[in-house]
Amino acid sequence: MDKFKTVLDLYLKHRSALGYGLVTLLTAGGEKIFSAVVFQCPCSAAWNLPYGLVFLLVPALALFLLGYVLSARTWRLLTGCCERARGCARPRGALVCAQLSAAAALAPLTWLAAALLGGSFYECAASGSAALGLWLCGDRDSSCPAQLPLVPCGQATPPTVQDLLKELKAQSQVLGWVLIAGVIILLLICTSVTRCLSPISYLQLKFWKIYSEKEQQILKSQATEHATELAKENIKCFFEGSRPNEYSTPSIKDWQQISSLYTFNPKDQYYSILHKYVNRKEKSNSIRSVEGDSVIPVLGFVDSSGISSAPEL
């Protein structure tokens, strides 16, 4: 039992890193399956380029959009947005979209890197490019441009043309490693800059993350209990034909207030939008956007979870 508790604590502590790692492994594994089972280069001058690019780019686009769909922050930003159009047009909304895009880019970049290292998609696409074909053929046999689309299938007649397969694979793998190195460097720079510009210290940030996790756990528990009691009361009154007892629930305005995006204000350091809401000076006051409020990238985790761990579509 103690070992299980240790494993559970380790998972909860490194949940984000494990989640990203799992996404990376699944994406790389999916690419291997696609390239080995589904992908079959047509070896045609007309089809090689579009076919290779479709397998290289379309799954990456699909994974990018899926990253948006599975993010709780996406739906926190969009739900009810049309009813409060002014709030959606604020610059902070654009910053949150940029953060969402960066998080959603993990899986597609993994797909691209794995596909380039494998080489199959690039070999097919590059062999169908007329411009690249002229550069690759160079001083080789005059039939090289016409035979180049057959290279991925091993059907090119002159051996010197068929040897271009190694060059195409080398180009693909170099691009893959360049992409991986570029992403790591960019990630390191962005992380360093956001931490450097953080208005709070390292230990307070740790405390903040603990508070955010506990708040969401308790909110989900209390919401479940409250909804259960309300449902029981309504069903009881329906079958008994009686009037329900007075049962207080938050109003639409209250839910809208705590569902808005969190913004940091150095004057009043609230740990969440709910914390800010319950500490407002007057019940009639809106807690949205006051002077000094700003979106801080390092605090993006505050809006990353909700009552449910995954959005329901």
From TrEMBL:
TM stretches of this protein: 20-39, 51-72, 93-113, 174-197
Keyword Lipid biosynthesis: no
Keyword terms: Ion channel, Ion transport, Membrane, Transmembrane, Transmembrane helix, Transport
Membrane topology: Multi-pass membrane protein
A Pfam short name: Ca_hom_mod
Compartments in which it is found: Membrane
InterPro entries named among the record's database cross-references: CALHM
Gene Ontology cellular component list: plasma membrane
GO biological process: ATP export
Protein name per the record: Protein FAM26F
Name of the gene this protein is made from: Fam26f
